[in-house]
Amino acid sequence: MPHLPARTRIARLATGAALSLTAAALTSSMLAAPAQAAVPAATGASASSEACIEGAADGTEAARGSHTGVDHREISAAEQARIESRFTKQLKAARKTQDLTAAAAATASGDIPVYVHVMRDSKGNGDVTDAQIAAQIDVLNGSYGGQKSASATDTGFTFTLAGIDRYDNTRWHQDKQSSTYRKQTRQGGANALNMWLVDFDYLGIATFPWDYARNGAIDGIRVHFDSLPGGSSANYSEGETATHEAGHWLGLYHTFQGGCTTTNDEVEDTPAQSSSTTGCPEGRDSCSLPGTDPIHNFMDYSYDSCYLEFTAGQSTRMSQMWTAYRA
Ligand SMILES: [Zn+2]
User: Looking at the keywords, is Protease present (predicted)?
Assistant: First the structure.
């Protein structure tokens, strides 16, 4: 997941180093009392929390990565096959339980309650305004409603703000102890989108719906606070990172998943592409398979201004995923 321009990345790294030193020096003292939650045990940056930021090895998370496209987690073909096999079975079972025809499951949708958790540092840095959050919800509704392009699909999903909370905790702000803070702050059920706003070297990281049953306590998306509308991430501050991460949360892979293969992202109307896109390279065609790269698709890594659409096939997949795992 791409995201931050080099200038910002350098500044961010320098800041991170300074904060790490501070954290090391303060280790078991009270680093930051959260505004509303219990202070988490000061365990330091554990190996597991680092692994979490990189993306868990078991398919639980996906990230919108760096500009180089190398720091997102890959899902192997074998892993993808297992996920799809379980999905097929779960969809069948869920249709029976919910008494849905195949067509009804393929068009299912919902009004998704959104809980926004603003993870500020101990000095209050990393805050966003309520107006920015409202604008973010508007972006989600516009993008999932197919309003950015004549060729975009209205997925039927809508988003309603259900709550905002703010915490003052430097570790949480830096996305350290992410499993802990997610477990302590997550709200709602499988249908609720929890969005944690943090400061890390990603634009965003998401969990997938097929992991909700065994890992629901950490279900949701982590999004860079500067990616919200009005934020300062150049090229990535129109709120579309949340759109992308919510796409994973609703069961979509990247459009470049699987590279130049016919299976690729399991969606037929998103042409295969060999790798992630940076910027907005019109006409890019990285595979010899039919179609040019879907650079305007929300599930590529293009600039926010380049993101225009979900396809009908992606909409169907999200509906089926909703039926199987979140309805
Ligand atoms: Zn992604």
Answer: yes
